[in-house]
UniProtKB/TrEMBL annotation:
Active site positions, chain numbering: 248
InterPro entries: Ald_DH/histidinol_DH (IPR016161), Ald_DH_C (IPR016163), Ald_DH_CS_GLU (IPR029510), Ald_DH_N (IPR016162), Aldehyde_DH_dom (IPR015590)
Organism: Bosea robiniae
Residues of the Aldehyde dehydrogenase domain: 12-474
Keywords: Oxidoreductase
Protein name: Aldehyde dehydrogenase (NAD+)
Signal peptide: none
Pfam families: Aldedh
CDD domains attached to this UniProt entry: ALDH_AAS00426
Family (UniProt): Belongs to the aldehyde dehydrogenase family.
Amino acid sequence: MKTYRNFIANEWRDAVDGEHIAVRNPSTGEELARLARGRREDVDLAVRAARQALSGEWGRLTATERGRILTRIGAGVLKNIDLLTEIEARDVGKPLTQARADVVALARYLEFYGASADKVHGDTIPYQNGFTVLTIYEPHGVTGHIIPWNYPMQILGRSLGAALAMGNAAVVKPAEEACLTILEFARIAQEEGLPAGALNIVTGFGAEAGAALSEHTDINHISFTGSARTGEMVQTAAAKNAVPVTLELGGKSAQVVFADADLDRAVPFLVNAGIQNAGQTCSASSRILVERSVYEDVIARMSEKYRALKVGPAESDLSVGPVVSQRQKAIIEDFLGVARKDGLTVAAQGTIVPDAPADGAYVAPTLLRDVPPDHRLAQEEIFGPVQVIMPFDSEEEALALANGTPYGLVCGIWTNDGGRQLRMARAAQAGQVFINNYGAGGGVELPFGGVKKSGHGREKGFEALYGFASMKTISIFHG
């Protein structure tokens, strides 16, 4: 068992008060590691280190030099792929194949933003005679990053990568449930030459370290990924300092299947988008909407795949691993209890393998059919391997169902009718729309974010670079 400390100004430091937080392996329930329990004083130290970096070596680098460092760090991530895969599997509970894919994605984010750092250009604006007006992009300054436990590496890559590319210095508060790969990443970044203070990491509870970061008076921008309730608190705290916030707050994303869809292609996406990472994905497709004439066919096909799903320890690399904690397991089981109480019909379930450790946080993937659109399980984010499926009779009804939740993160549309594809895509209330696919293979290049209670702002892709910068307008009178 390893004890991890905070990473501040390229040094590993104990929390000011010396306390720790236990991290447990969700596959076994055993204690895996201990984290420093950072609080306000630790966040203050990290913010000061970031501010000093902006006036020091990090702040003096050109965009090209920053990009080269990020590219080197990305290569360093791949050198450590086996180590990071093992840690992510044990820490988050991801099957090894999924954990390894996340390492590759982190490296790709750094490659993408490393290559993009010197590609952000301002404009010259036509104006009155005798004036030249131009715009430039400047870093916000010190950026705060509150990272969730479900995809520590991927969300660090899309958030931190863009922030550093634009010249910000960062303070990261990862989730206490699962953040060990983020701490290992700090070691890699230091080894690959990231100047002191450009990246600082303070571990701890959200109500302590996270709240201190959100309301800190010397933070210039906050990136938060997590629940809508916590996002509301982060934005409220930041508003007192007039600090911009990027919020990605989850969803209740639908895949809409019309009768003319290629079901052989669609069904694997329908299932995998709901059970990947045990359903603990903000953009998970937790609602499947199907045109009535093919409804029973889709249920039969999905049920066959569900019954083949095996759930077990992450190291076994089965279809589904454990959820992240016993607390998360209890939340999901509470939703399933509501389903039983209300008489919802289970179409199919996966199977927890017999030798799964008794203290592991295992949940059998569950497909529920004929769920009323206004039911809790069709409206609320469960964040577990649970999908609901319901029929529709017309394009108008399909659209109303797809848009009929408080969320608006992702929507999938399955149809070969080109006109319908565009009508649905334009009318869907979602930040991303996928037609005859879902997720686009990860899509580091694709801007990501939501509308409604799924949040605002965009990360991933080139668009994220603008979010981590301020535009300055310069007007020159020269006669």
